[in-house]
Amino acid sequence: MLQLLSKTILLCSLILLIFPADSLQAAETQIDYSKQIAPLFRKYCEGCHSVDDAEGKFAIDSYAGLLKGGKHGPAVLPGDSKSSRLIRMITGEAKPVMPPEDSGEKLTSREITLLTEWVKQGAKGPSGKTPARRELMVPEIAPSKTVPKPIASLAWSPTNDFIAIARYSEVDLLSGASNKIVRTIKGLPGKVNSVRFSPDGQWLITSSGTTGLFGQADIWDVATGKKLKEFVGHRDVLYAAQISPDKKTLATGSYDQNIILWDIATGKQIRSLTGHNGAVFDLAFSPDSTTLASASADSTVKVWQVATGNRLDTRSQPLKEQVTVSFSPDGNSILAAGADNRIRKWKFVSRKSAKINPLIYARFAHENPVIQIIHSPDGKLLGSISDDLSLKIWDANQLQLLHVIENLPTIPTSVAFSPDSNTSIVGFSNGLLKRFPLPATLSAPTGKQQVAKTDATTSPLRKDTPQVIQIKEVEPNNQPAQATVLTSPAIVASGVIESTQQNKADVDLYRFESKAGQEWLIETNAARKKSKLDSKIEVLNAEGNQTPRILLQAVRDSYFTFRGKDSNILNDFRIQNWQEMELNEYLYANGEVVKLWLYPRGPDSGFNVYPGSGGKRYTYFGTSPITHALHEPCYIVEPHPVGTELPPNGLPVFTVYYENNDDGRRELGDDSRLIFKAPKDGVYYVRVSDVRSFQGKDFHYELTVRPRKPDFKVTLKGANPKVNAGSGKEFEVVAQRLDGFDGPIQVDLSDVPPGFHVTSPIIIQAGHDRAYGVISADPIAESEGPLVATRPDDARYTPIKVTAIATIAGVKQTHAVNSLGTVQLLPRPKLIIRMVSLEINPITVAGDNLEQIPDKPLELTIHPGETIAAKVLLLRNGYNGVVSFGREYAGRNLPHGVYVDNIGLNGLLLLDNQNERTFYLTAAKWVPETTRLFHLQAAQDGKQTSIPVLLHVKQRDKLAASSK
User: Where is the Cytochrome C Planctomycete-type domain (predicted)?
Assistant: First the structure.
């Protein structure tokens, strides 16, 4: 008996050695997937094998994905642990070993045994619905000392006195009057990333969740603090939960890149909105609850239709992540901001269908990323905070800066306005809350501050022509006390840049006196007289310091792309973020200032700068043209008078002085020219030097200092035209602007012979140098009888008189222009070109009808910011090839800011045997009201032109009023 007992004990011992107790227990007890197996997968596997990052096409974060397997087939064979790829890889029997050897993680033998036994038991999954994962498998680390929880979000109720303060896992409801906590809502999962009140102030909406697991939004009763609804969804934490103004729909946005719309009444999902490629950081409903806007880490703002879930627009102008978005209270615009430091405002037009919402403003707002923007309840103000430690208050309409609070104690995290819009509150990352009462009077500027323009409208004309006095410099004159004195109103001084001192460059100074506001023309004549001097002129004040001319505040930063620019080229200025720039804006680059003249025609083209065509580019404010390198920084700048207090916007302010190297109008070659307006009564000095600091006997020059006398000359180009019967020929009028005159010039053509028609008057717009007209002849062919248009030998023929008129300092000035000359009449051309409205059927205007010149021109009307369409028709008379009307200059004599659109890089053309084409005209949003004749010119058949069309640019409200 004793021997049998000993054998039994030995046998049991051997069994225990072969099968550990844990294995026996596992074999006897059913292993729970949710409690025992899923945590192992989360710990070791989901970092690389989840639905969002399914390496090897294997997602293990769900039971269904586990059974599905990856690209190598099933990972688990229920009941067969030895053949299951998952078990073989974690035991090292199959390659690669999992977890990877370089991950620093490895399953314990007990964990391997547990997984093996689970597979042996049939790899059973969770029973019923998979429970939501609410906790992370991470260690809990207690802080070493008690510190205030950072404020994550703020909201001030629009209808009562409550302020909601969101922190980690809780929300405080604060009395706005007493600053005392009324109640605290606790137990929320994770950090509460956003808190919002319903429009009526009755509900509080919170968004939170657990990173990497789930997102949760809750609706709370403000009066009682009771939870009314809970919405759990998403695969990651929520950053935004927004309730629609009608209180029917809740929208949630998550780090998982998705948006979910929920029915508040039932608590059920309506639909999911997908399309973002980054976390969704903020959401905003339109005031009518029909549209949702979303801001995302993918650097876009998307617009969605709530009823259908359709995406109506994607605004991709932002350069970096967008973290905050808002509809204006009137529902007419969308605003967003983010990591690119800018606030953008779009006109909201995609209300019922997909449309492009045009950009209205893009303001460089802060030195660092913008954290939040918010409208004041009255809709007049916009608040913005940034981690540059500032709070800024803007005019919500024009995004003009009104008030700045700098040097905040630490990084702000959220901002809100009081219901009366008189106070702003800011929450901080250190857990503190601060109030900032706003000034009683906050008013935006009425517009951009005007610079002291250097044209004839700023000072009266000098009617007399002062006698020019010739003098010579007297050396030494390189110091103010030694300066050569200029006593006459008009002086031409002769000098040489040559120093008797070695290793010291010579400069020459000339002294003159001026009254405040008096304007002077200062220029050199050196290169034009074959001198070796590359002159530079400067105006110094009585102390011998440079005289500031203007302040240029950068409002947008950029850089040159594709290639650099030499000092002459005026086209193809490719610069980063060009879509946010506007014509007539000033572009500053390394001391040179140019002006944008024409938009790029797509991604493979760039801006044209003034004068737009006809030679070398112009520069402004006395700056000189220079070469620019690829990727060189540049800025859109706004001019302000010297002494203006400019609020900081995070971009530089450049002071431009009265100095010049090369004439900005490009009329003097390498010689210098300045127009100087004395800021005050006193003594001033003109300093002449070589820009390279070279010198020598051959570095001679003449310096002219005289009162400014603005004027103009106009030259007609295209005289003695040969005009085909029934067609037209273009001519050009070019203005030479003298002494900085920049106003409009009207060119009149009169005494037109019978049978001819001429564009008149022609307006050379302010700031422009040229305009175009057409002379056309009545369409009677030689074979059909005598020509209606008169010939030069006809007694009825008279020369066409041309005059130019402009108003300078309130005085009307008239100058004769060279004649159009002798007009030679030719037979019918091979191409006749007409423009018609879309309503006209081209069949009805074929043949002779097309050839007729109407008594009145076709009239088209366009509104600023609008695109309209028309047709160009061809009557071919022996020419069947391609007809080209040009590229960026396709519309001849259009008002500045109106251009032929949607033509790409090939321009406006008709292919072989094509007789009609629809073309489009677009007017920039700033184009003023005007009426102007424009035409098309073909490159073929002697450059035939169309009959001009009368284009009206009218504001919408005035057009509506005139139609009543």
Answer: 45-102
